[in-house]
Amino acid sequence: MKKIIYTLMAVFCIGMTACDQGEPLVIPQLDIVESTVDFEAIGGKGFITLASLGEKVNASSSTEWCSIQNVTGNKITFNVTENAEITTRTAIIRVTAGAITKQVAITQIGLVAQYERKDFYSYPDNVAFTEPIKFTSSLPIAVTIDNDWLSYTETEEGFQFKAEENTSGKARMGKATVKSGDISIDYCFLQYGIEGLCKEWDATYSDGEAMATDKFTITQTEGNALNISIAELGYQRISAIYEDGAIKIPCGQIIATKRMQNGSTYYIALGTLNRAGTQAGLSENITCQLVPYLNNKTKQWGLTFVDDGSWQYDQIGIVNWALTSTGSLAGYWDKILNLCLN
Question: Topology of 23-108 in CATH?
Answer without folding.
Answer: Immunoglobulin-like (2.60.40)
